[in-house]
Structure formats: C-alpha cells, structure tokens
Amino acid sequence: MAGVISQRRVDQRRLITPEGIDLQVQLADIGARIGAYVIDQIIINVGLIAAFFIIIFGGISAGPEVAITVFILINFFVRNFYYMFFEMGPKAATPGKRMSKIRVASRTQARLTANAVFARNAMREIEINLPLSFLFMSGDAVDSWISLLGLLWSGIFLFFPLFNKDRLRAGDLIAGTWVVRAPKPILAKDLASEKADLDSAYVFTPEQVEAYGVHELHVLENVIRANEQQTVMDVAERIRNKIDWSKGMSEVDLDFLKAYYAALRGRLETRLLFGVRRKDKFDKT
Amino acid sequence: MVGQITLKSHRFRAEREQSWRELETILKAIEGRGMKSLSDDQIVALPRLYRSTLSSLSVARATSLDQGVIVYLESLSARAYYILYGSQVSLGKRISTFFLRDWPLAAKALWKETAISAALTLLAAVLAFILVKNNPDWFYTFMPDSMAEGRTPAASAETLRETLYHEGGSDGLGIFASFLFSHNSKVAMFAFALGFAFCIPTAILLLYNGFILGSFIAIFSEKSLGFEVGGWLIIHGATEIFAIILAGAAGMHIGKAVAFPGELTRTESASQAGGTASLLMAGVVIMLFFAGLLEGFGRQLVTNDLVRYGIGLGTLLIWLLYFYGPRRIEDEL
User: Fold this and answer.
1) Is residue A91 classed as helix, strand or coil in its secondary structure?
2) Which of B84, B110, B127 is at the close of a domain?
3) Cβ–Cβ of A23/B65 closer than 8 Å?
4) CB-CB neighbors (< 8 A) of A134 in chain B
5) Nearest CA distance, B284 vs chain A (angstrom)
6) Which residues 50-69 on chain B approach chain A with CB closer than 8 angstroms?
7) Is the whole model's pTM more than 0.90, yes or no?
8) What is the pLDDT of residue A99?
C-alpha cells in the first residue's frame, strides 16, 4: 500500500494552471507507453492488410500496377498521419493511448499545439523505424560493422525514455510535450460517511486518536478500500495494541478500522484547520 | 467523543459533489461528441464549474485528508484544464494560418541556417564536380550503385541522353509513389531528425547529398549534356533540393539550440527551437510532395529543355518570394 503512495510521488510533476493551482499530473509509466504503441501498431497493420486485400480484389480491373501504387500511397499516409490525426483531437491520444489511459500533453503551461504533435511524431521515424531497418538489413548490403554502429546509434534514441526522469522520447524533447496518465476519475465513497451507525460502539479518547499522523491515515484508507481479510486483521491488531484498545465481543475488524479512521481523520483535520499538519506518527508537532 | 462530530471535510464534499458531477457530465460529452454537442446552458456553465472545481481542489488540499476526494479532483481538474486550455483552433483555420503566416515566417526566421545548409550543399556539389571531372573514378566513391541505375562514367552519351527524356516506361503515378520512399525524402527526414545531435549528422548528410548532386552533373557534362541535365534536374530539383536544404536548416536550428542553450536549460531550449523547426519541416513535407508531382508528371510531359528551365526557375522564384518576400506584419492571432 505504501508502495502505491510513493510511486505517485515519483511520477508526480507540477502543472500550474493560469489560475495558479498545481494540478500535479502523473507521468505515464513505460509499460503503458509500450502497451499503447503495440496496440496502435496492431491497429495500423491490421487496417493496412485489410486495405491491401480490398484494393487488390476491388482494383484488379484497373490493372495491378495502379492497385499497388494506390496501396503504397495509402500505406504512406496511414503510417505517417495515424498518430498525428488522433493526437490532434480533443483527447490528444491514439486509440492505443486511450486504452492505456494515457495522453499527450504540453510540458509547459502553453497549450498542446498541432505543431508540437507534428514534431513529436516526425521524430518517430528515427527513433523506431531506423533501429528496425538496421536490424533487418541484410549482411552484404552494408558492411556489418557499419550496421552495428547504426544500430547502437539508433538504440540511443530507442532507449532514450528510460534514461531521463520525465520519460521523454527524443520527439517529446523537441516538441515540448510529455505523456501523462489520463485516468477516468471515479469518486470513491467517503469512508467517514459510513461511521454513523458505529458511533455508539466506538468512542476513542483524545490520547488514542493522537497515535498516528497523515501518512498512517492514508495507509489505513488504502487498507480499508482494498479490504483484504488478512491485511485488515493484521492492521486492526496492530492499531489495538498501539492505542490500548480491548477488543469487544462482537467487534468486527473492518468496522473498528472504519470507526478509527473517521476519528483519526476528524482529529487530524481539526488540527489542520489550526495550521498543524502532522506528517506521520514520528512527527511531534 | 471526537467521532460524534460530523467531519467538516465530509460536509464540504456533500455540498460540492453535485457541481463536480455536473462538470464530469459535460467533459464526457465533449470528449465523446465534441463541443458542438453541448447545450447553451452547459457552455455557459463550463468555465464556472471548472473554476469552482479548482477552488474545491485547493480547499480540499488544505483541509481534507480524504485521499479519494483529492485524487478525484486532481484528475477531474486536469481533464477540464486540457479541454479548456487545449487546442481550440479549428482545423481549417489552423491550416490557413499555417500557409499564410506560420510556414513562411518560420522559413524566414531560419534564414541563417538555410544559408549555411545551402552553402554546404553547394560546396560539396562543386567539389564533387571538380573531382569527378578530373578523375571519373571518384564517381563510384560518391554514388551508391542503387542510385546510379547505369548512369555511370562508362555509359555512352546516347544512354545518358535517353535517361533524361524517358523514364523507363512507368507511369507518373508510379514515379510519384516511389518518390515518397525515395532517397531524397529520406535525406530530408533524417537531416531534420538527426540535427538534434549537435548539427553534425545533418551537416554530413547535406555534404553527402551535395557530392551526389555534383558527381551526377559531372558525368553528364563530360558527355557535353550539361545543359540538358540541368533542365532535367531543375524542373523538380528547384523544389526538392530547396526542401532538403530547408530540412537541414530545421535540423541545424535544433542542434544549435541543444549545443548552445544560453540562459535556458538544454531541454527548454530544444523544445523552443523545435516549435519553429517543426513548422518549417511540415512545410518541407509539402514541398517534397509537390516535387514528387513535378517529377512524376511534369518531367514526363515536358521534354523541352527551355520549358523545363522555365518551370524550374519559376518555381524557385515563387518559393523565394513566398518565404522571403516582404509581407504585411499582421497582429498576433
């Protein structure tokens, strides 16, 4: 659970709106980027193969040469403009990116322009297609040492996103863009709202709700939302020990946690209103 | 006793939740069916809801410890932000601005790089021309076999003349299509894309391209076909070689920004230069298309040398006027 929180922090970047609020965007992780790329490639290639058969069978009357020429033209347009077309749309994401819940965004406050989308996709040619062509180049056409050097050179571009903190492709670097997560937000139920009928059973003393800080509160929130039996049991046990709470006869672990969560949050939020944010249980403010 | 007080953050959420949901509905409509699907009321409500959600977010960050709400508000605000501050120019408007203003201005802004890249090409062409003239063996050093297609110093004047006026029987569309994958459009793409590595690969590519050009002209002039090959080249070359030079200029512009970022960080500097350079590059793609049409159809239909020169020099003049000619300074759009 703590891992989820710290990963959020690693991926978090500032995005200050003109209204002066930091939206804290989350960078897309490499796995999602690769997934999106693979999906897009599958869509492109399946589409092209389908187009190939349609043109070959439909255009045979016009002569095979014309049919193949038309196909070559379609191939060129689709390969080059697929990414640009979708990334210029309102979602700024190709179908693959949409499925991976990521999108392209401008790195600065400026809006994402059509030029930026063009630049980031023009670079795709050397980043991905060039290494591939070096890989498939036959041995005798080019000296194998030269093709190895070429492969190394293009490998630098291919692995570029792994070696900079914002996971930029070379194209992103030039275009001033980056790829961020774009999850559909789901408003989770407020855990504190469920405590009404539990109130009478769980009354904590001020000392008991002083035991933890904000960090532990968030971990507790995650535990309750995940609701895994073993974890809930362990955490409930640990909290009871820490605050000297004797377990009642018919006490359900989850209910105890929810009640304690509500009490702890109430206490910490009250202190927050007075300007004190207690980071974690070691924080003595 | 603490637990009995209703949490302030819970009340806060209950009061605002309605407006967050409303914003969510509007965003969903825009992302699905575009701005046009909104009713008048929704359009009026959108900025108000956006601001109130942003203010909810800052209040929540300051007073609420409910992670669910904060994460939700962050991603809702970000979604709204991307739509409100996203690209709102219509595609048609965008295209017309590009042709009227952005493209020529980008070319003009990069005139120094363009001059350097033209000089490199010219230098290499002259050098190769002299070398091949003196010793035809140099030709084989500069020209890859796949490109020469029999047009070597060993070929007879008749064969060479033949290649200038007949294109081996394929039709215009075929030449146009194969052009898209041809050597020159690849050189243009790479000259731009590799500029990033401190201009060096771009400069090498431009020199290489110049060598090919020079040695090519040299073998024709050896057989006293110099004037004819000029016409053959210039009809599309005026556009095509110009496009390659501009692509090189765009690449160098980025390379220069990476090498000498000045006050900015290298990343900032690169992306700033990338803006102008990619505009120019979009133009280069259009020029290459145009050159492909000229090569595929123009050169097929026009076999008179003087008319070829006329068309070639005419297009060159048009490009120069379009890019560098005086224009009214318009207000920022």
Assistant:
1) coil
2) B84
3) no
4) none
5) 12
6) 51, 54, 57-58, 62-69
7) no
8) 92
Indicate whether B154 and B271 sit together in one domain.
Answer: yes
In terms of average pLDDT, the best of A190-204, B146-160, B288-302 is B288-302
Contact residues on chain A for B2, CB-CB shorter than 8 A: 204, 206, 209, 263, 266-267
What percent of chain A has pLDDT above 70? Answer: 82
pLDDT of residue A46: 94
In a domain, B331, yes or no: no
> What tokens were used for B109?
């802004």
Q: Tens digit of pLDDT for each residue in B258-296?
A: 888 888 888 888 878 887 888 888 888 888 888 877 877
Q: For B322, list phi and psi in degrees, rounded to 5.
A: -60, -45
Strand positions, DSSP E, A18-147:
25-26, 102-106
Smallest CA–CA distance, residue A58 to chain B, in Å, is 19
Same domain, B99 and B70: no
Contact A190, A203 (CB under 8 A): no
The whole-angstrom distance between B223's CA and the closest CA on chain A is 31
Residue B333 in any domain: the answer is no
Do residue B307 and residue B263 come from a single domain?
yes
Cβ-nearest to B282 among A118, A125, A268? A118
Q: Where does the pLDDT of residue B321 fall: very low under 50, low under 70, confident under 90, or very high at 90 and above? A: very high
| Domain residue limits, chain A | 19-124+153-181, 191-273
Burial A77-115 (b: 16+ CB within 10 A, else e): ebebebbbebbbebbbbbebbbebebbbbbbeeeebbbb
pLDDT of residue A1: 42
pLDDT band at A136 (very low <50, low <70, confident <90, very high): low
